[in-house]
Amino acid sequence: MSGSWNVQIPLYAGIFLLAVAGNALVILTLVRNQSMRTITNLFLLNLAVSDLLLGVVCMPFTLVGNILRDFVFGDLMCRLIPFLQATSVAVSAWTLVAISVERYYAICHPLRSRRWQTLSHAYRLIAVIWLASFVTMLPISLLSRLIPTNQGLKKCREIWPDADYERGYNLMLDAVLLVLPLFILIVTYSLITITLWRGIRPSNQSGQGELMNNGCSHIEVTRSSSSFKFNSTVGTTSSSSPGGLRRTNTEKALLKKKRVIKMLCAVVLEFFICWTPLYVINTVTLFDKYIVYNALSFQAISFFQLLAYSSSCCNPITYCFMNSSFRKAFLKLFGCLRRGRPKTHF
Questions:
Q1: DSSP conformation letters of 74-109
Q2: Which of 26, 34, 167, 235 can bridge 48 by disulfide, Cβ–Cβ 3.0-4.6 Å?
Q3: Distance, CA of 329 to CA of 339 (rounded, Å)
Q4: Would the pTM count as exceeding 0.85?
Q5: Per-residue pLDDT of the chain in tens (346 residues, 90 and over written 9)
């Protein structure tokens, strides 16, 4: 075994453990904590499920296959693993888009979005994301095959009837999973940032802040028909409190919204940093594989694959460091688990 694998195996193991434990913790936290059941957090729950799928199903098989240089898991797993990996990436990309669009309407057009921004609508959208991802990635499952190598081993590859079809399909994936989502995310978060940073004017001479009348960024909508509170993740204001206190509460709400948006932007940045290199390598390989093979060793390509998988463990760490609500909920969950341990009597 080369020295490269002496480094990569511990990295794979560490990322795998962080991905499984971290995303399981996020899922448990959001499922058990009713106060955190908001639309944004529901999408983050879906993101955690997708990342957990990537960590559990794809990482161990990929590591073993790369070490042995032989795919030993059979034809069924050859069809299943690449399909689930691609599906997980698609679900993650479009869940991030759904979060950005939901936050854009919640912050910039709260009154316009009241009718459709409900948990039931979010559940339906998540179902559509998964269904569309399955359908889009179905060719990968149908065309993946075990093929023999010169050394008498096996590798798992897609066998297309025509190279142009393969190139066209992969270029479509690049557009659908990287270019288009990145464009939407840049536009929505730019508009959100402009709205939030203009939300409060500097204090005037009397020492009291003045809210900008921009029609958004400080409206709190409560749905009395359900336990869901529209902006419960970003703070509330009290309409019955004195003017100064109301302004202070609104400023705090805006600052909390800014922190949430910073966290979401960090999640987006991590996703694209992790996955873009591997997609670029795969796309270039389709047109001229010798450029890639001459520029990068097998171990280097494996490191880029590892970088892509590391996206599955980044989000829980980001939530913990950048969101106090998640941090408190994590600690509360650990406390509940400790108290909930059954006592044994002998």
A1: HHHHHHHHHHHHHHHHHHHHHHHHHHHHHHHHHHH-
A2: 26
A3: 15
A4: no
A5: 556 667 878 888 899 999 999 999 999 989 888 888 889 899 999 999 999 999 998 888 888 888 888 888 999 999 999 999 999 999 999 999 999 999 899 888 887 777 778 889 999 999 999 999 999 999 999 999 999 888 888 989 999 999 999 999 999 999 999 999 999 999 999 998 888 877 644 443 333 433 334 434 433 333 333 333 334 344 334 444 455 555 566 777 777 778 888 888 999 999 999 999 999 999 999 898 888 888 888 788 888 988 999 998 998 888 877 877 788 888 887 776 565 555 434 2
Chain position carrying tokens 């195996």? 9
Output 186-193 pairs: Cβ under 8 A, ≥24 positions apart: 188/100, 188/101, 188/103, 188/104, 189/100, 189/103, 189/261, 189/264, 189/265, 189/268, 191/104, 191/108, 192/100, 192/103, 192/104, 192/107, 192/108, 192/261, 193/261
